[in-house]
Design goal:
The protein has 387 residues and is an alpha+beta fold. The protein is built from 15 helices and eleven strands. Helix 2 packs antiparallel against helix 8 (163-202). The radius of gyration is 24 Å and the shape is globular.
Length: 387
Amino acid sequence: MRKRPQPLHRAPPPGSSIEPQQLLALFSAKDLNALIAAAFPVLQAAVPCDFATAFYRGAGNGLLKQRDSYGRLSSPAFMRRYMELTPALPMAMANPGVKILTTRTAVPVPAATLRKTAFYREIMQPEGWRHGVALCFWGTSPAALPIFVTSVYRREGKRDFAARDVAALKRIHPFNNGAVDRLHEREAARSHRDGIEIAVRGGTRGFAILDGNLTLVHANPTARRLRTIWMDEPAGTENSWRLPPLIEAACRELHRDWQSLLRDDPDAAGIRRPQPVTHPAVQGLTARISLVCPSTADLAQPTFVLELDRQPDGGTPGTPDDFAQVLQSMTAAERAVAMVVADGLSNQEIADRLGKTVYAVKFLLHRIYRKAGVPSRAALMALMRPR
């Protein structure tokens, strides 16, 4: 029989209070792992519990991963089954913005009936819990599902969470919510920054940055003018913004491809792009779309970089040689990884294609960044991509 793992953060005794340092750790979290590590002690200081969990999702794919205070990490396959069986998800969707969900409200049946359900047999019992309270966080913009969920649990034979316990969790919800929103905004800003870096380094005359909902974040005057040509709109309408249907369809297809990848690789990040979209009637008018996937895909939508150009002779942009010297300075292994990165693949895809481990790919990327003089994957893509 497998020995039960010991919790990473032991629950404090009843009556203990949350320390200011614990709340400060929440707001100083710079990535998802740090946020989760800071959230567990706050939850366990708020109420006596056996363990705590964090649920988080890939953009557009629902809850994909679960990590708990024992150090266990659930697989995407387990989470898909969880989503099929849990009654909490339909309840949250029916009550958008709900902050607190308890087991007794999500599964309001007698214990004997509960034990016969697939949800109890396949999820609750293997995970080792009987009573739970979930804190839901919806992000700064409207969402169909929570972008982050933390929960506390008690095992079979323990008392259910009392009203005072739920009240204590409600009191700490705003602190956790503020930390989630702060990280969400940080990730969105990082994706926008990487998108702008692609456009600037690429040298395209017209560029626009769109958020994950295809809402305009920024567009330079050339992009606005070329967009009116795409839409066959009269001069003077540059300040309005409607995405051409052909480009919108390409963006959504690219987003769907990324969502499919997230089902198998929830950590997929980087940059993905399709072939340039060509205007069906205006010769030489092209659009190149890049999807900048956030490093914390669970808390932020990707950014779209739209590069518009028009070649006077009807041709397409050529391929520069400005990265030839960079390639020559690399080892054969570094060069192979760099060229595959230019195809917009994730670390896992690169590892699979080249027969390496993900850790080896990350190590080689670090050396490639240093030799290329770039700070990020987005900058490397902008330097090496075909034009």
